[in-house]
Amino acid sequence: MTPAKVGIIANPASGKDIRRLVAFGSVFDNEEKVSIVRRILLGLEAAGVDEVLIMPDTYGIGQRALDGLGQHRLRPRVRFLTMEIGHGGADSTLAARLLREEGVGAIVVLGGDGTCRAVAKSSGDVPLVPVSTGTNNVFPVMVEGTVAGLAAGAVATGKSSAVWRAKKLDIFGPEGWRDLALVDAVVTSDTFVAARALWDMERIQAIICTRCEPHTIGLSAVGGCLAPVRPEEPAGLYLELDKERAAYPVLAPVAPGLFSRVPVARWRRLAVGEGIRVDAGPRLLALDGEREVLVRAGEEVKIVLSAAGPNVVDIPRALHEAQKNGLFALKEMPV
């Protein structure tokens, strides 16, 4: 029988960007991430996982989580990926590829939308359990680490197949595929990165979303407060912003505690496979809330809505299935 493996990627930098200063969010402490990883490990153990592979990081989240278990000896074998660290989001992308090549049955991701996006670049079909520890958290969910570990373990051990396919936005330049976004791609008037996070509506020309709901925070919330699109719908949303032609002005929470009056001039739903052309630069695209892609002068870029995003574990359904398949049934009462 093939050993059940699960990977853990915990981003030490998530939850600390400039939106914590310009808005009213709190910093997500790395010690809390250590505690969450510790509970994930215990959840994986209870689910019957044989091996856990952890991305190393500059804070040592994984090792601190193990050290904090004290006398408790985990039954699963735990090892750290062999890789260079200290390269920001590229660490998560590399770790996801290595975990995929190792044959893990699921990856638990601790971070925000940006971390999940970095993982999705190379995770392939491996199901993700995205745990929210970032600033704008539309893609990852607020879930207790114990439950996240149980759900990842249930899928990895074959006790559940509760997985759904997320949407994404593919960014194409003259050279072909360039990047992706899981939640939103934003066309800005900026020509240099400065602070990577984006919150100023004056700089935004258009927003393209895979999903947008009024109970979320971030730039996709602009669409959610105007014309919601659910994560499971085969559709997206396109909005143009223009203060002089604001036919559909909307109030939206674009960062923790920060509301903006957004001058939406036009909007329409997008079909899967439909693309939006970005006028020739220079300008920057912000992907999942962070300035990432430079559109150079004379360069044409296209943003296409795709149904082929990463696989995601449906946590409640996974544990319901696992319960029916005997995950929690004891053969005998322990002494």
Structural notes for this entry:
The chain is an alpha+beta fold. The chain folds into 2 domains: 5-166 and 310-324, Rossmann fold; 168-306, Probable inorganic polyphosphate/atp-NAD kinase, domain 2 (Tumour Suppressor Smad4), CATH 2.60.200.30. The chain is 23% helix and 31% strand. The protein contains 8 helices and 18 strands. The protein has a 7-stranded antiparallel beta sheet. It has a 5-stranded parallel beta sheet with strand order 3-2-1-4-5, with helices on both faces. β15 (283-287) and β16 form a beta hairpin. α2 (30-47) crosses α6 and α6 (145-156) packs across α8. The radius of gyration is 20 Å and the shape is elongated. The model has no long low-confidence stretch (mean pLDDT 92).
Task: Describe the protein's topology.
Elements (H helix, E strand, L loop, with lengths): L4 E6 L8 H4 L7 H18 L3 E4 L6 H7 L9 E4 L8 H14 L3 E6 L1 H8 L7 E5 L12 H12 L6 E3 L2 E6 L2 E6 L2 E5 L15 E6 L10 H5 L10 E7 L6 E8 L2 E14 L3 E4 L4 E5 L2 E6 L5 E6 L4 E3 L1 H10 L11
Parallel strand pairs: 1-2, 1-4, 2-3, 4-5
Antiparallel strand pairs: 6-18, 7-8, 7-17, 9-10, 9-15, 10-11, 11-13, 12-13, 14-17, 15-16
The ordered string of helix (H) and strand (E) elements is: EHHEHEHEHEHEEEEEHEEEEEEEEH
Helical residues, percent? 10-25%
Give the radius of gyration: 20 Å
What is the strand tally?
18
The percent range for strand residues is 25-35%
- Average pLDDT figure: 92
Distance between the termini: 29 Å
